[in-house]
Structure formats: structure tokens, C-alpha cells
Amino acid sequence: MLLSKRAEMFLPDQWPAYFSRAKGCKVWDLDEKEYIDMSIMGIGTNILGFGHPEVDEAVLKSIEAGNMSTFNCAEEVYLAEKLVKLHPWAAMVRFARSGGEANAIAIRIARAATGKFKVAFCGYHGWHDWYLAANLGDKKNLAGHLLPGLEPKGVPAALRDTIYPFTYNCFDELETLVNNNDIGVIKMEVSRNMGPEENFLQKVRNLATKKHIVLIFDECTSGFRQTFGGLHKLYGVEPDMAVFGKALGNGYAITAAIGRREIMEAAQTTFISSTFWTERTGPTAGLKTLEVMERIQSWEQITQTGLDITARWRTLAEKYGLSITTSGLPALTRFTFGSPKALAYKTLITQEMLAKGYLAGTSVYVCTAHTPEVVNGYFEALDPIFGIIRECEEGRDVMSLLKGPVCHGEFKRLN
Ligand SMILES: Cc1ncc(COP(=O)(O)O)c(C=O)c1O
């Protein structure tokens, strides 16, 4: 159900894939074998670690008191107030339960507000038709270039030419797009693999303002990882709408689209409504997660840990004379080997680390349970594997060391 959790993405034929328990940064498989998660941590949902006691307690209390009723739950109002307080440019909030949904809500509201339907986008924004329509059609709209391998089967051909990709940090590309098409919405991630260069975000903001385009920052993954709220706060550039997901409920389903009043009010001119957006565990988890994050300044902790991990990867690579490139937000750090055998090496790391009790590849979604001891243990385990990779660079056959096929590559992003 989630591409990034498929066993083939990690270790084909050998990845445990299903869990019985999870706590902190530990996961137990169905045979009760324990692993330390130095990989995607639920794909970024759990900045405070799995099963955080305070968040779980708040959720359990809401279940005891009744999770659903004919009335709405007050927690959604409190959470909306908190999100608006953290982002004073915004005035209104819509909640959903997945990131793709919240993005679809934002797109609908933005289109309703401008009366224009064409979208320029950068980054990943979910599985819905409005987005996958980017892969429809011919060379003209970059089919086969964007998210290679993702077929838009089932997406109506009529959506062709409604959405256009642009490359991160390529302002001229976006400006040309905007000049040649009646773009009503710009949707982008603030930063993912690289930071903004040459005032990119501010230039996008200015362009959107000048052309009366609604600018939406998708903060589903970047939110709460480097700041208390959207990453855009760090860069001092305000969007017209922002979308939050992933970490907002520390593993419980709660996502949000926030925006300026004049834009959000367009929601009243269309129809956006769903039963389970009104259940109580999501906003309850969101409120408690934000309370704990604020108290322990989690974004500072995970950023420091991420910087430490990144620096130690580089040191390890130097020790063994390996070429690696690091990228990503500090708390979503990753490296790639500068070698044609990079994917095989990644598979080897996952295979060997799994045998040592770690879920690991070439990226880490950092959480507050990744203590210095945990990180030290991880590097002790990783060191000799870099040594084997050194041998492979000198001629040893990496394929003969793999007990199964090479893992699948991730889908490419335009940022
Ligand atoms: C930036 C961004 N937007 C949207 C999504 C989609 O969220 P979900 O998988 O919860 O639908 C993701 C998920 O990876 C994401 O990273």
C-alpha cells in the first residue's frame, strides 16, 4: 500500500516486512526478532519515536471517552488554533488523514480561489489524479522523465496539460512555464535533497504574487524537522497555503492544509468533506505531539543527530577511500556511493546490517530515540561493511556477497 515500504525497496526476498511491535527506534518482526531502525522510521512519521508514551496515553484517553460522535471533536479546533499560531500568515485550517488527501484539498481550494486549474509543481505530492496527470501524454509534458516507472493508467487523459513540473532551484524554468501557461497554482516542497540557491524561494514568492498565483508549500515531510512548524519559517518566505502530514501526529493519522483566509474561504464555494476527517484520535495525537515537540525542542535534537550521522558517514567513507555524496535535510539525511555499483552496495549494507539487528540502507529519518549510544552502535556495525565495499571497489565481486537480488531504486524527484 506504500511504495516505500515494499520489501524490494530494501532487500528483496530477505526483508522481514511485517512487524509485531515498535517502540522508540526499535521494531520487532513477527518472529519477535528485534531491530534498531536506522532507516525510514515509518517513512518519517515518528520524530518522537514509535509509541511515544505521552502521545499514546492521550490517544487512549480519547478512545476511552469516545473517538467518534455526531458532534465534532473540540481537539480539531485547538489543533487548528495551534497551527495558525505557529504560522501567523495563515488563518484557517482543513484537516485530513493522509498527506495526499491534504494536498488534494489544498489544490481544490487554490483552484476554486483563482478560478484557474493549471498547476506548476516541484516534488512529490501524493497519488491523486491531479498529480499523477503529470505523467500523462507525450514528450512535451515530460512523460518518462518525471517519476520514471510510475504509470498514470487510470488517470483520465483529459487531465493532460493541467500540471507541469519544474526543477528545484531553476527559477527560469518556472518563469517560462508561468509565462507560457495560465498557471493558477504553484505547489512545491520547500527543500528536500538540496537547499534553495540564489534566493530561489523568494523569487518564486515574488512571481506568484505578481501573477496572482496561489503558492502552496507542501511541508508533509519537511515540517517540524528543522523548525517548530514549516521549514519555510527558516527561510523567511511565506506561502499562501501549506500542507502538513507525516510527523504531525507522531504516527497517528492527522494531516492539515492551512492557508490565508481569503483563499481558504473558497472552500465554501466547492465541496470538500469526509466522515473520518472528524474522528478524534488524529487531532488528539497532533495536539500532544506538538506539546511534546515544543517542550523538548525535538527539531533541534534531530537536526544535531542528523548532522552528526552525516559527518560520520563522510569520515567513514574517507577512512576506506570511498566516494560518497550526502544530501537532504539534516534530519532526513542520506548518502549515495559514487560508483556504478551503488545500488548493489546499498543492498549489501542492508543485508549485513539486518544480520546485526539494524534496519539500515543509505538514508536515516532521525527521531529523538536515536541517542548517541544508538548512533555509536550503528557506526560500529557499519564500519566493517564499508571495509567490504572498499574490497569490492578493488575487484571483489559484490554480487557474490549478496544472498538475493539487488534492491529497487527509489523513484526520482525533481528536487
Ligand atoms: C512532500 C510529500 N507530500 C505528500 C506526500 C504524500 O503523503 P501520504 O503518503 O501520507 O499520502 C508525501 C509522502 O511521502 C510527501 O513526502
What does this entry look like structurally?
It is a single chain. A 7-stranded mixed sheet has the order 4-10-9-8-7-5-6, with helices on both faces. A 4-stranded mixed sheet has the order 1-2-3-13. The longest helix is centred in the C-terminal third of the chain and has 22 residues, at 298-319. The two termini are 24 Å apart. The chain has helices at 7-10, 41-44, 53-65, 74-86, 99-114, 129-132, 171-180, 200-210, 232-235, 261-264, 281-296, 298-319, 342-355, 372-393, 398-401, and strands spanning 19-23, 26-29, 34-38, 92-96, 118-122, 163-165, 183-188, 214-218, 241-244, 255-259, 324-327, 332-337, 358-360, 363-365. The chain has 415 residues and is an alpha/beta fold. Helix content is 39%, strand content 15%. Helix 3 packs antiparallel against helix 11 and helix 12 (298-319) packs parallel to helix 14 (372-393). It contains 15 helices and 14 strands. The protein is globular and about 65 Å long. Strand 11 and strand 12 (332-337) form a beta hairpin. The structure holds pyridoxal-5'-phosphate.
Features:
single chain; 415 residues; alpha/beta; seven-stranded mixed beta sheet; four-stranded mixed beta sheet; 15 helices; 14 strands; 15% strand; globular; binds pyridoxal-5'-phosphate
